[in-house]
């Protein structure tokens, strides 16, 4: 491999390294993340906040989180999910996670979030242009958001 080929490969890699993060954040909703109330965050993220509780949305969360700095959450659905989001009502920024689901992918997300205090956790699934949810209260014994 000559010097020009090496420069071309390294240059291409640098361009990709700069462009990919911008593409990954292109759909990020700053206003939804900045909202300080769950309904407002839903309106910013989905353009609506009319949510129907559904048994098809399954939220797995601990009843008691001994350490609010690391609370494991799982959302699962058999619906044709377009988007899945998780809200923690009493967090300073209630929207803690959102995932856009590709066609034909399983409706499953797992994450770990920080919770500063005992709060209601709401999983919202957008399917067929409508919002469906499941919720659960998680009791926090040691705060994770500066507590």
* Percentage beta strand: 35-45%
Largest sheet: 6 strands, mixed
Please give the count of helices: 3
What's the number of structural domains?
A: 1
Mean pLDDT: 84
Can you walk through the features of this model?
- Helix content is 24%, strand content 37%.
- By secondary structure, the protein is of the alpha+beta class.
- The chain has one domain: Immunoglobulin-like, CATH 2.60.40.
- The strands form 2 sheets. Strands 1, 3, 5, 6, 8 and 9 form a 6-stranded mixed β-sheet that branches. It has a 3-stranded antiparallel β-sheet with strand order 2-4-7, with no helix packed on it.
- A hairpin with a 2-residue loop joins strand 8 and strand 9.
Could you outline the blueprint of secondary structure elements for this entry?
Blueprint: H1 3-24, H2 30-34, H3 38-46, E1 51-53, E2 57-60, E3 64-65, E4 71-77, E5 83-88, E6 95-100, E7 107-113, E8 119-127, E9 130-140
Parallel strand pairs: 1-9, 3-9
Antiparallel strand pairs: 2-4, 4-7, 5-6, 5-8, 8-9
Question: What is the structure about, briefly put?
Answer:
With 147 residues, the chain is of the alpha+beta class. The chain has helices at residues 3-24, 30-34, 38-46, and strands at residues 51-53, 57-60, 64-65, 71-77, 83-88, 95-100, 107-113, 119-127, 130-140. The protein has a single domain, classed as Sandwich (Immunoglobulin-like), CATH 2.60.40.2470.
List the keywords.
six-stranded mixed sheet; three-stranded antiparallel sheet; Immunoglobulin-like; globular; 147 residues; alpha+beta
């Amino acid at each position: 491999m000559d010097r020009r080929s090496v420069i071309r490969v390294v240059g291409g890699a640098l361009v990709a390294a700069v462009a990919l993060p911008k593409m990954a954040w292109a759909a990020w909703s700053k206003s939804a993340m900045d909202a300080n109330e769950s309904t407002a965050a839903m309106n910013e993220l989905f353009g609506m906040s009319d949510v129907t509780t559904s048994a098809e949305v399954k939220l797995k969360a601990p009843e008691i989180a001994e350490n609010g700095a690391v609370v494991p959450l799982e959302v699962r659905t058999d619906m044709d999910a377009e988007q899945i989001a998780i809200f923690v009502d009493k967090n300073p920024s209630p929207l803690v996670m959102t995932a856009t689901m590709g066609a034909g992918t399983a409706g499953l997300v797992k994450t770990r979030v920080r919770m500063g205090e005992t709060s209601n956790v709401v999983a919202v699934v957008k399917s067929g242009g409508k919002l469906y949810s499941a919720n659960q209260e998680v009791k926090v014994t040691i705060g994770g958001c500066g507590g």
